[in-house]
Amino acid sequence: MLDGSTLTELQLDILRVLWDQGEATTQDVHDALASTRGLAPTTVSTLLSRLEKKGILAHRRQGRQHVYRPLVDEGQVRRSKVRGLTDALFGGDSAALVSHLVRSDDIDEAELARIRQLLDDRTRDEERGE
User: Fold this and answer.
1) Tally of structural domains, the chain
2) What whole-number distance in Å separates Cα of residue 29 and Cα of residue 35?
3) Are both 66 and 97 inside the same structural domain?
4) For residue range 4-18, what is the model confidence (pLDDT) as tens digits?
5) Which of 124, 23, 30 is nearest to 71 (CA)?
6) Which residues lie closer than 8 Å to 76 by C-beta, 6 or more apart?
7) CB-CB contact of 35 with 50 (8 Å)
8) I need a labelling partner for 73 at 20 to 30 A (CA). Which of 20, 80, 83, 94 fits?
9) Is 98 among the domain residues?
10) Are residues 10 and 54 in the same domain?
11) Quick check: is 65 in a domain?
12) 40-79 residue pLDDT tens
């Protein structure tokens, strides 16, 4: 099972490149991150290898290059990260997380309305057996 809660921001940035491109060489990933991260190509290569060892990426050979692709989708990582956050900060209590979010001053009325709609949709789907 994926433990996305242990993924670093840099690893997530690498995954975002691969999710956007579908697959990419080490050089492609390096180029995509160059403007924001300034990493050496060897660092990118090491990070890709580590993600592969964790079972998050796979590669195929294309000539002398490795072409990497993600084995997990963005939704899986999001769920895992949110579960880790919920466990760490709210003792696994999802309702406490939601309560914290809706009581926050950082959330505006439009976002609250969207949350209400999502909850209504979920309730309606469950009543229909979906």
Assistant:
1) 2
2) 11
3) no
4) 668 999 999 999 999
5) 23
6) 2, 4
7) no
8) 94
9) yes
10) yes
11) yes
12) 999 999 999 999 999 999 999 999 999 999 999 999 999 9
For residue 38, being part of any structural domain is answered with: yes
DSSP state of 63: T
Please give the Cα distance from 97 to 49 (Å, whole number): 34
The amino acid present at 30, given as its one-letter code, is: H
Residue 60 is encoded by which pair of tokens? Answer: 């195929």
Q: Which residues contact 40 (CB under 8 A, 6 or more apart)?
A: none
If asked whether residues 20 and 65 sit together in one domain, one would say yes
Cα distance between residue 10 and residue 43, in whole Å = 11
Cα separation, 102 vs 93, in Å, equals 15
Q: What is the CATH number of the domain that holds 65?
A: 1.10.10.10
Say if residue 99's pLDDT is above 60.
yes
Q: Which domain holds residue 58?
A: 4-70
**Closest C-alpha to 89, from 101, 77, 76:** 101
**Same-domain pairing of 28 and 59:** yes
Give me the count of residues in the chain: 130
End-to-end CA distance of the chain: 25
What residue type is 52 in one-letter code?
A: E
